[in-house]
Amino acid sequence: MSEERFEELLKEAARQYNEPPKVAKDEMWHRIARERRRDHAEQSTSIIRSPWLLRIVAAAAVLLFGIGIGRMTLRQDAEQEVAEIKQDLRRENAQMLYDLAAAPYLTRAETLLTQYSASSCDGEDRLEIGGWAGSLLTETRLLLDSPAGKESDLGFLLQDLELVLMQIRQSSSKGNDEECQLVRESMKDSSILTRLRAKIPAGQTPAGV
Amino acid sequence: MQYEREFIKAALTGDINAEKALYDAHVDRVYGLTYRMCGDVGLAEDFTQETFLRAFKHLPGFRGQAAFSTWLHSITMSVTLNGLRKVKRYRHWETSNDDPPVGTVDPDWDLRRRLRRAMDELPDKLRAVFVLYEVEGYKHQEIASVLDITEGTSKARLSRAKDKLRGALGDSIGKLAGKEGS
């Protein structure tokens, strides 16, 4: 009997035990909804932040970067190549013009030296040869001072030729036989005529020969 | 039930309106359970919210083997018991209720007071079974699912809970019996 009464009391107490008050449903839901929206937002950003996706994006970025650099380098290379070609062409053109300009000069110089070698030192034509040598000296200086002349393989020849021409002009004005012989020896030592003839383009006929 | 399945499917796609529908359908029961367990409005609200947040988050793990309510209440009890362990501010029988109502003569008032205190002082595991069985009307099979224990353990815990409550009343039961008999 007492057990039954106890059970009765227990059930009654259980019914009244921590009886819940009115539920604040809306307030609780607002907080839940806020958290859920944040969860959804984080889920969508976490996809972006996921390591595998980041790796793919990074790889793609590296690839694009590489392609960009490659294209830029190619363009730079091409531009550089074009610039070099242009420069080479300019240089070649200048050289060609220089050689064209130098050819008649070399022919005249060769004629002068041939004539000087063949004539006697006390000949009547020494003054004429001296004047001729003076005019060639001016041309020699112009060719030596030309920018194209610096790159030309005529440089040493022109320098030797300038020296010989100066000697010829001096010896001609003095009429000294000894000096005339010295010039001829100098011409022989420097093989100036042989070198000069080697530089004269084919088909150019020396004047007076 | 059919609607509930539809809501669950929709909630799985991130439909917040479906989540709201599930919330509306179950919040009273969930809140009731948490409040019965902790006796504190603030804690009960916190536990209720945590329960739904966890449920929605882990909804893809709900296989539909048990009823949604059983699955939800197992989360409720897990959240509540863990929460109570953490907060350590579990409220005992409120002192205002210790005094008998003015003008009322209730011979069993003292017994009821002692019984309620004894319920508050039950270990959480025993109180959980007691609340679910005696207060919420669960069967042992359901309690076993909700608390992830065996049916036998549920019965044993209920029995131990009642023994403790009986012990708290002490010889009052005998007096009660005498009073009943006279």
Folded structure, characterized:
The complex is a heterodimer of chains A (209) and B (182). Chain A has helices at 2-16, 25-49, 51-118, 126-145, 147-151, 155-174, 177-189, 192-199. Chain A is mainly α and 209 residues long. Chain A starts with a helix and ends in a 10-residue tail after the last helix. Chain B has helices at 2-12, 16-38, 41-57, 68-87, 109-120, 124-135, 140-147, 151-169, 172-181. Chain A binds chain B through residues 1-3, 5-6, 9-18, 20-21, 23-25, 27-29, 31-33, 35-37, 39-40, and chain B through 14, 16, 19-20, 23-24, 27-28, 31-32, 35-39, 41, 44-45, 48-49, 52-53, 56-57, 108, 111-112, 115-116, 119, 130-131, 134-135, 162, 165-166, 169, 173-174, 176-177, 180-181.
Fraction of residues in H or I helices of chain B: over 70%
Please give the radius of gyration of chain A in angstroms. Answer: 51 Å
- Main β sheet profile of chain B: none
Task: Note the quaternary state here.
Answer: heterodimer
Largest interface: A-B, 31 and 44 residues
Distance between the termini of chain A: 160 Å
Order of helices and strands of chain B: HHHHHHHHH
What is the β-strand count of chain A? 0
Counting DSSP H or I runs of 4 or more residues, the number of helices of chain A is 8
Strands of chain B, total number: 0
Q: Major sheet of chain A, described briefly?
A: none
